[in-house]
Amino acid sequence: MGAFDFLFKKPKEKKQVNGYFQMLDGYTPIFTTHDGGVYEMELTRACIHTFANHCSKLLPTVEGADQRGIKAMLDSKPNPFMTSAQFVYKVATIYDTQNTCFIVPLLDKFDRLCGYYPVNPRQTEIIEVQGEPWLRFTFQNGKKAAMELSRCGVVSKYLYNNDIFGESNSALYATMQLLHTQNQGIEEGIKNSASFRFMAQVSNFADPDDIAHDRKNWVKENMAPGSGGLALFPNTYTNIQQIQSAAKVVDPEQMTLIQTRVLNYFGCNEEVLQNKTVGDAWSAYYEGKIEPFAIQLSQAMTSMTFNQNERTRKNRIVWSANRLQYMTNVDKLNVSSQMFDRGLMSLNDIMDIWNLPRVEDGDKRYIRKEYTEISQLDQVAQLQAELASARAALNATQQPQEPEEPDPVEPKEEENDDPERENQD
Q1: 205 in Cβ contact with 69 (< 8 Å)
Q2: pTM, 2 dp
């Protein structure tokens, strides 16, 4: 059994195809991949790889009741051939190269979902089967397979003419041709500057064949490997001059302009390509390039995994990344210190920012000053109130009593027994 037979098992019964499924805009629902080589150019492949490489760090989260073990499957191997990071990398690569990526479900013998696989067919058509739209894939080896559109996930960009398939990269072809011509010019300039050429006037030759034969012999004797490095001319050559070849390369400004056009098309820049982005620069690239893809991937896999009733009960798959891990160390330290003692982050949240292993009881949250668990704030407030009243009562009992002041004594008049002194008065 090959990969094709593993992914697309034979149906139990054949169904009648009623032609193409008609779209509202009347556009023929056929998607064909282009062999023009978008992924074959150095700069375009670097942009696609950088995007897919960062997307491979997205982590899956399954919200709601996960009774089918989808979280464990997405964390390890969404299919027997790929790990979780490889799965997202492949989806992102096809998405950025072809502008449309199809994800088909892997089904067990009971027709239940047991995995996901991103396919890259040569051609995809939307056909109608018993009034329902189906996707019919045609692969490079000529084999065909079909599956209900509702059971497949479609992640696409540049939606214009079609409601499902993204536009081609025809807008980039002119820039790619300039890029190819630029590389050819650099190659030819290096070759011309590394070669030796001479011009001379030849006499005593009337037949053009004799001139060509003599020129070949001279090149063979003087320019062949092991010729000694000395060019010798017969006396039939006059006015001998060496042709000075200068390397003709593309103007640096024109080269920068061509590269900028490619980077703008893929939403990238040189710092991202060279892994120099941190902090705000990384956040800008994440929000502008990776996050829209993560949202589309989350919604596509949610729709193909859960039915309408399950989605109503808040069951969904979310792909996201911890952007705080890509901040500078100074910013990480500020976030850790400011968020931890305000109860906004737990200890394990801080460990995740620094890519450290989680600790036991690390999900508790603390608040500044008392550094008390949030769940115990009411108890702490009550204890503080009781402590304050106890301190007040203790101070009242230990305060010394002031001594009582004695009653004032009125002075008494002294009796005078001396009659002489009284007479003097």
Answers
A1: no
A2: 0.69
Confidence of residue 34 (pLDDT cuts 50, 70, 90): very low
Question: Given phi > 0 = left and psi -120 to 50 = alpha, else beta, which region is 37?
Answer: left
Say how far apart CA 95 and CA 406 lie, in whole Å. 102
Q: Is 100 exposed, middle or buried (0-12, 13-18, 19+ CB in 10 A)?
A: buried
3-state secondary structure of 275: coil
Q: Token pair of 42, please?
A: 């150095």
Question: Which residue, 48, 3, 62, is CA-closest to 263?
Answer: 48
Whole-angstrom distance, CA of residue 356 vs CA of residue 348: 9
pLDDT, tens digit (0-9, with 9 covering 90-100), for 99-133: 999 999 998 888 888 999 999 888 888 888 888 88
Residue 384 half-sphere exposure, CB side, CA atoms within 13 Å?
8
Mark out the alpha helices in 140-287 (DSSP H runs).
170-193, 208-222, 252-265, 270-273, 280-285
The one-letter amino acid code at 250 reads V
pLDDT beyond 80 at 96? yes
Q: Which residues, in sequence order, are CB contacts of 58 under 8 Å at separation 6+?
A: 88, 290, 294, 297, 319, 320, 321
Using DSSP's 3-state secondary structure scheme, residue 135 falls into strand
Task: Work out the percent of the chain whose per-residue pLDDT is above 90.
Answer: 28
Mean predicted confidence (pLDDT) in 213-240: 69
Under 8 Å between Cβ of 365 and 374: yes
**Is the Cα torsion angle 160, 157, 176, 141 positive or negative in sign?**
negative
> Tokens representing 179?
């890029």
Whether 119 contacts 155, CB under 8 Å: no
Distance of CA 188 to the CA centre of its chain: 37
Which of 107-111, 269-273, 279-283, 400-404 is predicted with the least confidence, judged by mean pLDDT? 400-404
